[in-house]
Amino acid sequence: MGRAPCCDKNGLKKGPWTPEEDLKLVNYIQTHGPGNWRTLPKNAGLQRCGKSCRLRWTNYLRPDIKRGRFSFEEEETIIQLHSVLGNKWSAIAARLPGRTDNEIKNYWNTHIRKRLLRSGIDPVTHAPRLDLLDLSSILSSSLSCTNLLNLSNLLSTQALLNPDMLRLASTILSLRNENPDLLQQNFQENNLCNSSQPQQNHFETPVPPCTTTSNAPCPPLLNQTQPMQSDIEDFLSNFVNPQRNDFTTPMLSENFVSQPSYNPAATAPLENMNFQLNNGDQNLRVDSIISTPLSSSTPLNSSSAFVNSSPEDEKESYCSSYFKFDIPDSLDISDFI
DNA sequence: AAGATTTGCAACCGCCTTTCG
DNA sequence: CCGAAAGGCGGTTGCAAATCT
């Protein structure tokens, strides 16, 4: 019954492939095709398991493999596909010509995953890490520019699920009401300790510090977000339109619901959460932020948007702008709890 | 300059599904 | 239809190179 054994595992070589082995494998496959991996090693004169040969061929020796750095477009495609497919590396690789599942998996684990984490994004759910989101939103709004975000509205939108965060928000709110100058002073003092890292809002747009009291008006933000709206719309049309991306994917907000690891408690509020800009009739929905146009080369990838302009830094920054919830290093949270 | 630590990636491992006798 | 191997896939490991102290 059944097939003959794949290969006798005894005496087979393991570890890195030598150029001679590669040559044997390539020559054999070019002549006979990949075909039967069970008999291939013997026929090709290789002391390797067929499985090892297949892996070596599919991950390294195949002539159509594209090597070298991942482009912005490739990286954005990986992120988008991963948000839909999860760790289905072979499915993702099928959408990226010349890239192998192993390569994409490695690139995800060593680059993209870390970058998303640093940007406050959960690499599993692609949702913002709400603990950081809440904290950053609270602190940036209450300490840096109190008119930017209506904290009371934020509280009412159930954004603050963590009891500690809720307590912290309440504390800040009450402190702000009782003595608005105190928080501002605290923030400015802390900020001096880390002046090399300028404060930025959620969209990588530097917010000039409010030099007067917390009730003073802040520079208008809407003018800065206005160009972004068109980019978002452009991105969404591209994202849904298969003509450009060669694949169709549902909206990201729907993806969260369909993901096996989806945590309703963590992401459900996102569906309904509006960040209400204080002076505006324009609300900036979180799901719109999630769909920030990664593919757009402008303005997010334009050099003017970044302090550092090296390719790696640009990738870092555009991931950060994907979701910018970094907690300022200068802030000592324990002071407020 | 040297040792320690971190990073990146090729390759392996083990599980699951498909295929075959 | 059954059982076993092949094939495929995602997770993990080990090591060399790069970076830091």
TrEMBL record:
Report the GO molecular function annotations: DNA binding
Which SMART domains is this protein grouped with? Answer: SANT
Domain of life, per the record? Eukaryota
What UniProt keywords are attached to this protein's entry? DNA-binding, Nucleus, Repeat
One cellular component term from this protein's GO annotations in UniProt: nucleus
* Myb-like domain segment(s): 9-61, 62-112
- Record InterPro entries: Homeodomain-like_sf, Myb_dom, Myb_TF_plants, SANT/Myb
Chief subcellular location: nucleus
Q: Which PROSITE patterns match?
A: HTH_MYB, MYB_LIKE
Annotated HTH myb-type domain ranges read: 9-61, 62-116
One matching Pfam family: Myb_DNA-binding
Where does this polypeptide localize? Answer: Nucleus
PANTHER family found in the cross-reference section: F14D16.11-RELATED (PTHR47994)
Task: Tell me the protein's name.
Answer: Transcription factor MYB41
Source organism of this protein record: Punica granatum
Lineage, uppermost ranks = Eukaryota, Viridiplantae, Streptophyta, Embryophyta, Tracheophyta
